[in-house]
Structure formats: structure tokens, C-alpha cells
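Continuing from the previous page...

OK, I double-checked the sequence for Coatomer subunit delta against my notes and this is the correct one:
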Amino acid sequence: MLEGEISEHCFDLIFAFDEIVALGYRENVNLAQIRTFTEMDSHEEKVFRAVRETQEREANAEMRRKAKELQQARRDAERAGKKAPGFGGFGSSGMSGISPATIITDSIMEPEKPKMAPAPLRPSGPSKALKLGAKGKEVDNFVDKLKSEGENIIIPSAGKKASEASKVLQPPVNTESVHLKIEEKIVLTCGRDGGLQNMEILGMITLRVSDDKNGRIRLHINNNDKKGVQLQTHPNVDKKLFTAESLIGLKNPEKSFPVNNDVGVLKWRLQSTDESLIPLTINCWPSESGNNCDVNIEYELQDESLELNDVIVNIPVPSGVGAPVIGDIDGEYRHDSRKNILEWCLPVIDENNKSGSLEFSIAGKPNDFFPVNVSFVSRRNYSDIQVAKVTHVEGDSPVKYSIETSFVVDKYEIL
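Thanks. Re-ran it with the corrected sequence; updated C-alpha cells here:
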């Protein structure tokens, strides 16, 4: 391995060596365990990245719209024989050859993001575990073994990593003194030939009060669920009040909700094998054709009230046979030759884009393309349980509040 390659891939090598050597002594691990440890994925990180990328796309779209408005204002001003507002003074700065609209557009438009997002880097702190000493031969043997098994440790260039690192922080959520989170997650397993083996939806409303003046409040719930979820209130919540009036309040109305603590006030659960309740169906049809296998995979949104963002369908592909040949495709794709995964990427699936397909061909057998895994994030919840308003216990006056809603995947697998 050349010095330049070692420098470029130093983090991957450090992470791998860190699994082998601890405090100067070799750990009792095999290659399969090392690969598992170094390739572990974080579901929370995927959700974070998906939400962040959606917000970035929305911000870019808004900036493009503003740029068009500024260009139109300039044209209207020129037609009227006037100067476009807000653009004076550029001529004296040596920029008379550049139109004002061009200047504004260049200043607010961000370069389009690369389609191939780099793999998340595992955070690392100071460590004394890498005391290799005389074990250099074992390290070389490890690297040679990786190469002999066809491992590809090439990662995106340093420039891409730097650009991604500059966008790590998510814009803060504007929260009021009463903040609510409506969170749902889904666990689903389907058979490749149809049939829902199991689907479970788990949801919760979490309340956080940051001002003790708003501690004595009640939440007005709109339960529009028609799927049959089972609801359960917190033990300190007045169940009779909730059953009779769909209000969440404490049993003792003289008490306040705890301040600066996240309190789960209502949770629900749905477990079913009814195929009509599947939010997004995935059908994968591999068929052998000589030495190759033609694969047709399609999706369909059954619950049209949902809007799914950053949908990724992960399809395993055989190793050592090259990249798949893509035919018709809705959306985009990425081929990860290291993990032997074909990622089908769809930015949005909603009622206007509720079905689509992907066709590709590659050497292999039908069983090579399962299990198929799906991930997505949505700002609309599945069970349609909402908070209508928040009021004070005394006087029933309204309380200003903020709310976050998320529907994410814990497991979504077609076996």
C-alpha cells in the first residue's frame, strides 16, 4: 500500500487496528468480527442525516425562488426605465460587467450536493490503544488478508469529507416554553411472495415544560385513528378525563407538570398482520436469464395521507460479479461494492408520486437479492393522532406551544 493511500485512508486503518490492539496487546477477534465492528450503522444517525438533507433541499429551493424574484424585479425596473432596487453602487467597484442579478444569485445559491454521500465517520477521541510495537508483521498480514478477500477500503476524497464535516450541526428547532414531540416508529416484516408476517407501530406524545407558569395545562387530543391502535396514558394522567373528553391533564389539577423534563403523557401501539395496513409495499421480482438475473423491484404507497422523505431501498447484490446494469429507474441509485448493496434512493414518496420501479441485471440467483431493507423518515405520523391545542387548567385560556412530529423506521424488511 502506497504512502498516499495510507494517508488518505488513515481513519479506516486506525479503526480496524483499534479493534485488534488494546493497551499494546492483541485482542482475540477474527476478521469477520472486525468487519462487523467497523461497519456498524447507527439508525439515529441515518434519521438525523435524512432530516438534515431534507431541510437543506428546502432551503436551496427557497433561495432559488428568491433569486428568481430578484431577477424579475430587475427586469421590471429596466422596463420602467428605473434602476432595480437594492443594486446601486456596484459600478464604482469595478463590477460593471456583471449584472446585479448575477451577483445576487451567486451569493445565495449553494453548489448542488453530490449524490454520493460519504459514509459517516465514527467519532474518535484520544486513545492509548495503538501501541503496535513489534506487531507490525501482524498488521501487514491483516491488511494483506483484507486485500486477498477483495475488500475495497477506498473512501471519498478529503475534499468531500471536509464539505460534509462543515454541515454537521442541524439548525436548532424553535421551541416554545411548552414543547411537544409526537414520535412513531415502525417494525415490519413481509415475505418475498407476499403476506405480512408482522407489523408493529409504537407511538408516544412527549411533553416538555420549560416555564413553571405553564405547568398546569391540558392537552386537547384529536384522535382520527381508524386503524385500531391501543392507547395508554401515563399513570399520573386522569384517564377518565381523557376517555370522556380526549383531554390529557394530571389527576390532581392543582399540581403542575415537571419543569425541564421530558414526560411521556400518551403512548399507543398497533400490531397487525393485515396487509391493507402496510404503509409502503415493496415487490421484488428476480428472474434468471442465462448466467444473469433480471430484477424488477417496485414500490407503492398504500396510505396516501403519508409523505415519506429520503426513502432508501437496500437490495443485496452478489459480490465479485461487477456492478449491476441499470435499466428503467424512478429516482436515483448508488452501488456500494464494499457492502455489496444497491441503494435505490427516492427523495419523496407521496400521493403525487405513489408508485415507481427499478430494473437492473447482474449475475446471480434469485435468493441473492433478499432480504430487502427499507428506511425513510416522515413528518406526518401514521396513526393520525394530533394535539389540537393546549390550554391552562384555570380559565381554559390558550397556551402557545411548539410541536415536532416524526415517523421513522426501526425495521422494514422483505425476507
